[in-house]
Write a structure and sequence with these properties.
Tetracycline Repressor, domain 2; flat; mainly alpha
């Protein structure tokens, strides 16, 4: 199948869209991460989540995340057609037209925000609306194509789900979900900079000002190491503030140390070996976020059930 390479072609579809194409618009892998971190925030929040409210809230957060993905693919269809890792998405591959993606994303946005407001509370709904706006307008439309700090500032969009989950249950914001926000926020930079190091040619072809293309690989490695150190501190913060116990503290310290070591290993190598190590860091960063949040959840649930200290 030939890929489209200009905006006019992107508005013409060769065949009828399939259900799988609309599901792909939702960015299911990203959605699963959003749902998981939101669920952790929800389950940790006082006074405890009502099963029905919790289920509806998680569904709304998932749909809102999917709406963000669809709107992102609508706007980024031109550069998605150029990059190897995105050119087979439904719009650049010609299986879905851009207007359909736009309409789909807008409908899901309105549905998720309104339903969350009615089922949980309007503060949570407002945060969800702001997250969708931030991801589409501030990150996708503005930061992504204009500054090498796009992943740093834009990382806030992916960091809001645990706060939304917490607020859906408690109705207010407190220190605990803010700490979870900071973990994801500081995680975003090394995660995406590692990706940009081994996919540098893709971003260069698409004209996206990722840090390796703008400032060079050495500067990127320095920034990546700095943010890995900040992530290690942010990851340990829940234990430091008494929000988590010793099991979480030990796991967070170990994971943070591994992130720092993998970042240091990027120095002194170039070419294929550097890209290989960057990919290793990128893949580990995925495990970092999951294990960190899973440990916090398991430890808290164990404490509530059996009095673990």
């Amino acid at each position: 199948m030939a890929y489209v390479n200009n905006m006019d072609d992107l508005d013409h579809v060769r065949g009828g869209a399939r259900v799988e194409d609309y599901l792909a618009l939702l960015k299911p892998r990203l959605m699963s991460l959003v749902v998981f971190t939101a669920l952790v925030g929800m389950l940790l929040a006082p006074p405890g989540v009502h099963p029905v409210v919790g289920a509806i809230s998680i569904l709304c957060i998932a749909v809102g995340a999917g709406a963000s993905g669809a709107l992102n693919m609508w706007y980024d269809a031109d550069i998605d057609a150029i990059m190897s890792r995105t050119k087979n998405r439904p719009i650049p591959a010609g299986r879905l037209d851009r207007n359909s993606a736009l309409g789909f994303g807008l409908v899901l946005s309105v549905f998720s925000i309104a339903t969350l407001g009615l089922a949980a509370n309007w503060l949570a709904a407002g945060l969800l609306a702001f997250t969708i706006f931030y991801y589409l307008v501030i990150y996708t439309m503005w930061l992504k194509r204009t500054t090498a700090q796009n992943t740093v500032i834009g990382g806030a969009a992916g960091a809001f789900p645990p706060i939304i989950g917490w607020v859906a249950v408690s109705g207010s914001v407190s220190l605990e979900p803010v700490l979870l926000f900071l973990i994801i926020f500081f995680w975003s930079a090394p995660h995406f900079w590692a990706l940009s190091l081994y996919k540098k040619s893709d971003y260069e072809a698409a004209g996206i000002p990722m840090l390796p293309n703008v400032a060079g690989e050495h500067v990127t490695k320095i920034h990546l190491l700095l943010y890995s150190v900040l992530l290690a501190f942010a990851g340990f913060a829940p234990a430091g503030f008494g929000f988590a116990g010793p099991l979480y503290g030990a796991v967070a310290a170990l994971l943070g140390a591994v992130m720092i070591v993998l970042s240091i290993r990027l120095f002194g190598v170039a070419g294929g070996e550097m890209r290989k190590r960057a990919r290793t860091l990128f893949l580990f960063s995925l495990s970092y976020l999951f294990v960190t949040f899973a440990t916090l959840l398991v430890e808290t649930l164990a404490f509530n059930v059996i009095g673990y200290v």
